[in-house]
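Subject: complex prediction, re-run

Hi both,

The earlier run crashed halfway through, so I resubmitted it with identical inputs.
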Amino acid sequence: MSLKKFQDKDIIQNTMRAFPRVKFFIFDSVVYYNDEPALSGATAYYAKNVPPGHISLYEYNIDRILHHGIAAEPGNTSDPAKSIYPFITKQSQGAKFSTVSATSYSTDFVYGDVMTGSYPLSASISRIYWTEAGKRDNLYDEEKGTTLTNQGPPVNPKYYALRNRLNFYGTLSEHYNITASTIPTGYDSSGNLTYRVGWNKDSQAINLISIPSIFYGTTISPGSVSLKWFFTGSLIGELQDVKQNGELIQVYPVGSANSGSVAGVVMYNEGFVLLTGSWEMGDPAQNIGIVAGTTDKPRWIYFGAGAQDGIGVSSEGATYLSASFDMSFRGRTDTQVITMFTHAHKGKVNISNNPTYVKHGQPILRTTSSVVYEENPNRLIANVVSSSYHNHDADFKRQVYISRVAIYDKNKKLIGIATLANPILKNEEDDYSFKLKLDI
Amino acid sequence: MPNQFQPFNLNQDIVTTKTLLHEAIPLTGTIYKFATGSYIDENIKNFSHGQFQAVYDYPYLSSSANHIFDITMGYDESSPFSSSTSVQNAKKINMYNMMAQTLLGYTSVGNIHQFEPDLSNKSNLRPMTEAIFINLSRLMTKDQIKKGTFSLTVATGSWLDAYTAGQTITITDASASDNGGTMSTLGGDMGLLYAPNGPLASLIQEQDGIAGGVVGNIFYQAGVIVLSASVFQYSPSSSYANKADSKELFSDQVGDLGCNQKSIQGCFTGSAISASMNAFRHRVCNIAFNNTTEINSNIYFCRVPWNRYNYSTNPTYVNNAKVRVKNIASDPPISYITTVGMYNASGELLATAKLSEPLRKDPTNELTLRVRLDY
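This time it finished cleanly. Structure:
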C-alpha cells in the first residue's frame, strides 16, 4: 500500500472558540439550568439521577437504581450491580480516585484491593452568604490565659482564598479591591462636595455565588452577565457587566436611585460572583423571608437565595416564594482543532485492496508448494460501472469507491481513520480533496 | 521564570507507567427488555434500512440518551436458513459476511472466515453459520472489555413467562483472562462464550459436537458479541432425556414482534431483523461486564536538593529591598514551593504542576516532588 505524505499546507491547527449560553433560574430552593424542567424517572426519582440544575458528568446511570452490588467484587453474580460505577485496583503506580485520601490509600488498602467510585458525578451553582466576610475566630493565648478577640483563624476560609485574587483584579476595576478609601468625586448641583464612599470587604456582608467551570469552560465571557431579581414574578432589579470589566452595575429600574451603582463583581476566570449591594429594591420594598431565620427587604446580597444554601420555605416561610432569580451569561470554550487536507489526485488512488475489487470466483493462487507461493497474475478486476440500459453491461472503466481515509504516523503506524458518510466514486480522471477535522 | 533549572536524570527521574481504570457495566433488562422495559421501546431505534436495531438507555430523542448497543442477526450463505423465500435474506447474509470479514477476515483460499466455536479457527466442528450480533458501543466498552468478566443472562422459559424465577441461564466468557484463553484475530482478542454446565451445554454438545457448551464468540477490543443461534434451539433428538422437564432448557419459542411464538428458525427465515431483535431482547435479562481504560502516564521525579530553591522570585518575597523572611543577614532563607515548572531543552515552559498546599523549603530539607502526567 502506498502512502501519501502531508505537505506543508495540508495541515492547519487553529482554535475554535464557542460561547455557550448559560442560564440559571432559582425558585423555591430549586435551580433550573437552561430552562430544563425536573425530569422524573420511571425507575429513579430524577431521570438523570441528579437534581435539576445539576450537570451529570458522562450522564451515566440515566434513570437507574444506584446499586453497586458487592462493590469490592465487580462482576459478582450473587449480588449483581444495577448501575455503572468505576473501580481501580491498587497497584504500584499509585493511581487512585481523588476521593481516596493519601492516608486512606496507604492504610485502608493493600495491593490488589479494589477502590470503587460512583456515578453520577454532578455539579451545580451554589450560594454562600457571609454577614461579615472577613470575620476571624477568637484566639486563646494559653501562656497568658487571655482571649485575643478576632485574631484566630478565618471563619470564612473561602473568602480568604479569594482575597488575593480580588486584589489582583484591582487593575481591572477598583471594585475588586478589598479596601478602598472614601474619595471626593466632585460637586453636585447645589455646590456640595460629593464622595465615593470607601469600603472594606472584610467587614461587609457578601453574597458569593460559585459557578463550576463545567458550565462555562475557559472563562465567563465579559459583557454577557445578567442577574435579575424578581419579586412575585415582577422584575425589580437587574445587574449587568456592561463595562466588561467585572463590575456588576444596576441597569434596571432605569433612572432609579441606585441605577448605575455597582452591586458586585464577577471573577470571570474563576467563576465567582460576589455581591455586596445592600440597598433595598422594590416599589415599595417589602419584607420577605430570605435571610436565614429572619426577614428583610429584597437586596442584592440575597440574590440567589435557595441555591444549595439551605434557604427555603420550610425555614423562611411562605413569603420566600415571592422571590425568584435569573442569572445568565455566556461561557467560552476553546477547542484546539487540527484540519488535514488529504488529496486523491487524478490517476492516483485508483485501486482497492478490498477482496471484492476483483471478480468473484477467480483462483487466488497460480502455484503453491513448500517452496513456491505464486498468486494468480491474471485475475480480473470486477466491472462495477453502472449501465444506463437494462440487461446491458457498461464498458469497463477503472474506478474505486473511497470509503475511508487512514492516517499514519512517520513510523507508518495507523493512528486514525476518517470514515465518509457515503462512499465517493472516483474515476481515474477525478481529483478529490478530503478535509479531515479533529478536535483535540 | 526560574533563574536556575534542576535537570532531570533521564535514567531515573522519568518513569512511564500504565494504569488500568475499570468500570462495572450492568445493562439490565429493565432498560431494553421488549415492551416491558422502562420506556416501552421509546429507547429502541429502528432504521428504514432495517439492518440493525439501536438500543439506548433512555428515549433516544432525548439528548440525555446514551447509545448502549446495536443488535442484529445474520447467517452465512451456506446456512439452511439461506433461501430466496427468507425475509431480508440478502441483508442477513450481508450482515453475517460483514461481521465475519471485519472480525475474522479471510481464509487462505479467499473465503470469508466463518465464526467458529474454538480458539484455533481450524476446527472441524460445525461453524456458527447463524448468529445474533451485539455491538456494544464504545461509550460502554471504552478501550476494551475486561477479559473474563462478561456475562449474558437469558430467559429460558416460554414466551409468556420467560422470566419465571429459576428459568434463566448465564452465558459467560469464563475461560478468558488477561493471561490466556483468547486468540488474536483481525478484530482483536477473541474469547469464547460458554453456557453453564447443564442441559444447555449437553444440548450443544449433542447437537453441534462442541464439548463444554461453547455458544458464541466475544471480541474484547471491538466490543462485539456473537451468539450462536443454536442456543435457542430444542434438541431434535429424542435421546436427550428429560428435556421437557428441565427448567434450564431453552425454549424454542423465541417469538417475534407480535408474540407469535415463532421458533428461532422462524425468526431467522420468517421475520425481519427488527422483529427478531425485539424477540431476542425479550429474552435478555442482563448483560454485565467490566470495561477497561488504559491510562498512560509519565511520572517525573522532581528533585529539590538542600542547597537550591531556598529563595523565591515572587515579588512579595522582598520588602523594602530586604528578604522578608530574614530578620538578620545570617538567618537561613525560607521559601514555600507552590508550583513546579517543567521546561524543555530549549528552556521553554511546557507545563506547570500545582501543589495542593505550599511546601516549606529551607537549607535543612530536601524534597522529591512526584509529578504525574496522564494522557
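Chain B touches chain A through 35 residues (CB under 8 Å).

- K.
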